[in-house]
Amino acid sequence: MVYDVVAYPRLPSAALHVLEGLRYQMFHYGEEDALREFLRRVGARVLIRVGLPVNRELLGEAKGLELVITRTSGLDGIDVGAAEEKGVCVTNQPEVIAEAVAEHALGLAIAAAKLLVAGHSYVVSGEWARQGWPRWWRPRLLYGRRLGLLGMGRIASLVAQKFRAALGVREIYYWSRRRKPELEVVLGARRLSLEELFERSEILVAALPCTDETRGLVTLDLLEKLPRNAIFVNVGRGCVVEEGALEKLLERRSDIRVALDVYEEEPVPPEHPLVNQYQGGDRAVFTPHIAGYSEESMIATAILAAMQARRYLEKGCVWNPATKNCKQCTDSPPTLDEAIRLARNMLQRDSKHLQRPPD
What we know:
The chain is built from 15 helices and 12 strands.
């Protein structure tokens, strides 16, 4: 008899409480081989994963698998086409992660404009004491600048709200394959062509997934259209930027700053020309793909994934269908405030559940 739920990595205690009464099995990071053997020999109806590649081979060997729940916002590492072919439903958990990524985008833009990383390094290295105040540095004011959004999904709409509230952004532009009239009304956003978006955006935030359509979408030609003193922020996926384009942009435009959380190759090798040349932080800010990995988001997504697993087993539906063969529930998942509250309550009770996120 197959199990109800199997999870990789192990879920925190608050999520396990949601699964009470069900047959479940948990696996820690590093136990991927044991998990695959379990799925082959025993099986489970629902797989909850982070970092585990769900390819055609696994989908073909997993006994009784009906649903794959990723605790991430994106579907990276899941062969969605193969899942649909085999009748396996796929769903994600974008709610809390989108909030974390949007906050990170705001932080990256501020860090780049205000030279926070370079300033920190200047102080702790002793350069300030040795050379005095760096008069050649000029932090930039972000108030009232024009915001451009590459993509207009859940993350980008939150980015727009935060930039408008925190930085007094008044003009908001976006590019998306489909028009988003409801967001145009709520945010006052205006849809532009790609060329127009780059020409007008003083702060440009990329929040696109990596797909066949988006790979290499951001070319050097487009980047060079950015206004003077613009900041380019990428919290989507590194593949959307043409290889080598950012290095060439920074070489040709001394006024441009970039702030990145995602890269074409991850982890980024230390000899990478972009990181190696601009590690001082005065032209570029880098973080290691951590935008969505807040403490609260990791716990909340686990709780929501467990809730979604239980809902599927009891009702046969999911909240966030990512494949056509999923039945969508008519009710809604817990609100963002409720999910974060549950996560923070657990953090106060127990911090031992925290695990290092996958590469």
